[in-house]
Amino acid sequence: MTKVKIYSTPTCPYCKIAKEYLKNNKVDFEDIDVSTDHEKAHVMIEKSGQMGVPVIIVEKDGKEEIMVGFDQAALAKIIETNK
Predict the structure, then answer these.
(1) What sections of 1-83 are H helices per DSSP?
(2) 80 alpha carbon, distance to own chain's centre
(3) What pTM value is reported for the model?
(4) What is the CATH number for 52?
(5) How far apart are alpha carbons 55 and 78 in whole angstroms?
(6) Strand order in the sheet with 55-60
(7) Who's near 75: CB < 8 A, 6+ residues apart?
(8) Which residues, given as ranges, of the chain have pLDDT below 50?
(9) 3-state secondary structure of 55
(10) Distance (Å, whole) CA 77 – CA 83
(11) Which domain holds residue 21?
């Protein structure tokens, strides 16, 4: 089973675009607002090494693909590869 998490903030335009892309492609995802959840923000920084959002994590079979920022073509490839 593929799990997608997106670490985001309400004011981030790229976060909104990424979430809209996932919704339009019928990809279920967990949206984590790091502006209000400081524990999850710390997890995001540990996993990605970045403080910027969005951070998108696609997990399948215990392996994670981590994307910092939003690159539609790269995300499409990761999701398609991990279906």
Answers:
(1) 13-24, 38-48, 72-81
(2) 15
(3) 0.91
(4) 3.40.30.10
(5) 14
(6) 30-33, 3-8, 55-60, 63-68
(7) 18, 21, 56, 67
(8) 83
(9) strand
(10) 10
(11) 3-81
- Predicted confidence at residue 62, as pLDDT, reads 86
Dihedral of CA atoms 1, 68, 75, 34 in degrees, nearest 10, equals 60
Please tell me the distance from the alpha carbon of residue 64 to that of residue 4, in angstroms, as a whole number.
10
Residues 6+ apart with CB under 8 A from 33: 8, 9, 10
Q: Which helix (H) or strand (E) holds 7?
A: strand 3-8
Q: How many domains does the chain have?
A: 1
Q: CA nearest 52: which of 6, 4, 1?
A: 6
Residue type, 70: F
* 12 within 8 A of 53, measured Cβ to Cβ: yes
Rg of the Cα trace of the chain? 12
Query: Coil, strand or helix: which one is 81?
Result: helix
